[in-house]
Amino acid sequence: MTNLNQELADAYARSKVSIWSGDCRLVARPAHQLEVADSKFFLSKFGARTLFVITAWNPESLEVSVEANAKANKELLIELENLDCEVLEALGSSLDDSWFEDSFALVVGDQEIMHEVEKRIRDLALKYRQNAYFKITPETIEIVGALFEGLHLSLPLALEVMQP
User: Which residues are paired to 144 by β-bridges?
Assistant: First the structure.
């Protein structure tokens, strides 16, 4: 892995994803040693085994204006809504919240279409010039490279439920 890929992998490994669902916010992040995600809660909350989290913010990790990011995310949302899966608001951020990117979580309830949906997510990540996207399962949070196609980290999942 090149130094740039390693830096990117390290940054994603120090990230979290907040997902708004109904009356609560779920925070998914890599687990610390001995933490275990409640996979039954994940399955019951989403009725799915897989979530994909993607954004159109800051293509190639280069900061652009809030207006440009919002416009690109609006276009991405239209494309996601055509995938016949539930789309939830999400926020990708550093663990300390010093940076963030408005995002979307795509809920895949039908495992028979999961691979096709992931192909579309990867195509959209490439279209919107994203280095990677998240794939969240009841047990793992994965960082899957798009522009950095050799990047794939699978880390144990920790889930926190934040009530309003």
Answer: 133, 152
Domain ranges of the chain: 3-154
Task: Express each pLDDT in 95-151 by its tens digit.
Answer: 999 989 999 999 998 888 899 999 999 999 999 999 999 999 888 999 999 998 888
Rounded-to-5 percentages of helix, strand, coil across the chain = 35, 35, 30
Cβ-in-10-Å burial (0-12, 13-18, 19+) of 128 comes to buried
Nearest CA to 50 out of 112, 131, 101 is that of: 112
Beta strands in the chain (DSSP E): 15-21, 24-30, 50-54, 86-94, 100-108, 132-136, 140-145, 152-162
Model pTM score:
0.91
Side-chain half-sphere CA neighbours of 145 within 13 A: 15
